[in-house]
Design brief:
heterodimer, A: Arc Repressor Mutant, subunit A, 3 domains, 15 helices, B: mainly alpha, 2 strands, binds zinc ion
Chain lengths: 491, 139
Amino acid sequence: MSEPYQILIGLEVHVQLLTESKLFCSCSTRFGQPPNTQTCPVCIGMPGTLPVLNRKAFQLALKAALALNCRIARFTKWDRKNYYYPDLPKGYQISQYDLPFSADGYLPISDPRGQIEPKRIGIIRVHLEEDAGKSMHDEVAGRADSRIDLNRAGTPLLEIVSRPDIRSPGEAKAFLTELKLLLNYLEVSDCNMQEGSLRVDANINLLVDTPEGAVPTPIVEVKNMNSFRAVERALAYEAQRQYEAWQASGIRQGGRGGHKTTRGWDEAAQVTRAQRTKEESSDYRYFPDPDLVPVTVTDHEIDELRRSLGELPADLRQRLARTYGLNAYDSDVLVSQGRRLVEYYIQLADHCGDGKLASNWVQQDVLRVLNERHMTIDQFPVSAERLGELLRIVRCGQLETSRARQVLAHMMSTGRSANQAMAEMGIEEVGEAELEALCRELVAANPKIVQQVKGGKVKAAGALVGQAKKRNPNVDPQRVHKLCLELIEKM
Amino acid sequence: MGLLAAAYEVMNNAGQSDRTGSGPIPGDVLRPNDSGPVMGGEMKITRDEVEKVSLLARLLLSERELEAMTQQLGRILEYMDLLGEVNTEGVEPMAHAIEVSNVFRQDRVEPGLAREEALANAPHRDEECYLVPAVLGEP
Ligand SMILES: [Zn+2]
């Protein structure tokens, strides 16, 4: 159903870079350490200290920007964003203002389930900055003080600002999912929202259809969204709320009362609530940081980094479809599991020679085990080569699927090869003559079932298959089924 | 040379309040003629702007200090106008005062401060953290 408005959404995403040390000092960036055990005079803002840029952080940032199709500035500098907040020891954050290292990119999004149309979401800019510390306030305990932990202060963050090209909460989620996948592939960030290494704020407003044309509602910045689902829900709620507010008040963007406001997502109540923001807070009085020298980047460096990006998710989906004959859905499921799993899949498909079969086994069996045992693909006990061997046997029709699953379980617990496992399990192919003899016996012994089948109830033959498997677990149920039906037909 | 000296004088006069940190500026650093009108007529900065800037800098200025700061900052900005007279055609803007770029360090963790050292100067603290008056809401 189409609404009488269009939704405009722009996202501002902060991701923590996968470096060992902070952006401008040598303190560790490890998550979850005891408070104030990862600081030094630089990151706690002692006078007379000098920040020095982390080369790896800059390179990771460049990789991300290149993968987001951004223009890379050949010259970039550092600015101070001045504001007072207890978790910001220096009284300013080192960030990038007018000369960010990259701008004007895009990220294509699509959805193999067809929920959204494929499109490109523009990226306004990507820049580097340092994180602030963490302030903790225990309201329940009714403490008068807030506690400040500066372990996180100075951690490298990449800020990615999208254009307001996003037209629905679903598109916002697709953008975030694809961004996270891309940054995971690049090993730029783990994008773990629980640990705060990915944070999202959203700007959202509506273009309402009116007789005088489309009217924009005031922009609202939505904060405090702690998962991609929360982003989707908060934006859906906010769009509806803005439409109702528009209907009630008629307040338009730029008009009286039409300035930008901030709202926080209340996960428990599933609503957004107005947040108080200080009026002067947007005045950050940026100026160039005299403690840091500019960075220049050469074409040669950019070319080299571009070559180091490796195959990215969008390319991989295409390759899986083209080379292994997978449909969009299957290739998306595999690619979304990460680069290592795709590598496993490709090896498996090459070994068994059937991309579709390999995809089914990875999705149904390998992924199930990984989920159940909380493992990564690198910890999966059966190599792609050995599983490929098993699938070759399945492909030749020498082993039916449920039996093959038992073989895989045996391989996982014993570390045997497919052939060894089958030998140990006493699995051998049942010869044609033996199989026919068994089926004749069964058909003769079950006149009732024969009658049912003859009466049109083909399903009844399933009972024969069950009996056959009991007599000889090595029989292929499909062959038994087919053979029994043929025999009954001839009767 | 004359230019530079004049600049330093203006800066120094304006900068005297630094000695007192963020507390109120004692009256004696203000020279008598500071409260007079700025030479050259038009004010470079308004009192409202100075008030706003002092709020942003979390400086609590008295009426008298506000007035003085308006005069002094106005004079500094007026002096800056002198730079506008220099012909800068074809001169690239500089992003930094020294002509050095690309200073990096390796991404290597080195020992920092022990927690006791890090918290040593904190006016208020507990065993693990700095303590500050309750922080509610966003920056
Ligand atoms: Zn540090």
